[in-house]
Design brief:
By secondary structure, this protein is an alpha+beta fold. It is 24% helix and 22% strand. It contains six helices and nine strands. Helix 4 crosses helix 5.
Length: 234
């Protein structure tokens, strides 16, 4: 019997999805892994997800491990539970950020604008594009003549951890000395400076975070310090 639409068997086969190709496509998209990540992010068990989707826990387990191929209907049920579009399971996943900074590859730079420099630093995140924070290793050197430390300020926050030695820190009108193992977190929008406070170098990890400080609530008086961590040091 002739095909009324005039389509040959060969042409019909070309329009049919190859099951192996479909399974390979799904495997490459790692749909099962994406479902599992969504479920674990919500701290949801397989039984609970099954109640929301009408699918059995055993089927969902096989789906997550790639032993069964999901239908679009099943994917749509799962997507709705997590408030996602179907496209979520097929979009190209961004690669996770992962950068190693070997000590031998880092560059040691002196403090700028001060002679002699009071510290040297190495960037621990120079290979990360569009980073939200800047981590540094800094070494504050003891000087025979102690100059007035150069203060600076910038938007965001700063975190310091003293690995070794003593570090004198000034923040606004506050001043304190940090010992080995001490840490401090402060608003970097206030002028601050630091210098070695002992006879041996102070080695410090410094992390500056770029987000601007949030609006502060009204203060009871103008003497309330912004540098809360320094209250115990005064």
């Amino acid at each position: 019997m002739a095909n009324p639409a005039g389509v040959t068997n060969e042409e019909t086969q070309k329009t049919q999805a190859d099951p192996e190709t479909a399974e390979r496509f799904i495997a490459e998209k790692r749909i099962g892994e994406r479902i599992r990540r969504l479920r674990l992010k919500k701290s949801m068990g397989l039984v609970e997800l099954g109640k929301h989707t009408g699918l059995s826990a055993s089927f969902l387990s096989q789906l997550e491990t790639g032993r069964v191929v999901p239908t679009l209907r099943n994917l749509a049920r799962i997507a709705m539970v997590f408030s996602k579009d179907l496209s979520h399971f097929f979009e190209t996943e961004p690669s996770a950020m992962f950068r190693i900074h070997r000590q031998k590859d880092r560059v040691r730079l002196p403090q700028t604008g001060v002679e002699p420099p009071t510290y040297f630093f190495e960037s621990l995140g120079y290979m990360v594009p569009d980073r939200n924070m800047d981590p540094y290793f800094a070494e504050f050197v003891p000087l025979a003549r102690t100059p007035e430390p150069k203060a600076h300020m910038h938007p965001g926050f700063e975190f310091l951890y003293v690995l070794e030695g003593e570090l004198e820190l000034r923040h606004g009108d506050k001043e304190c000395t940090l010992d080995t193992g001490d840490a401090v977190y402060f608003d970097a929008g206030t002028p601050h400076s630091y210098q070695c406070a002992g006879k041996r170098a102070a080695r410090v990890i410094i992390v500056t975070m770029h987000q601007p400080p949030q609006a502060m609530p009204p203060r009871a008086s103008s003497t309330t310090p912004r540098f809360v961590a320094a209250q115990a040091c005064s």
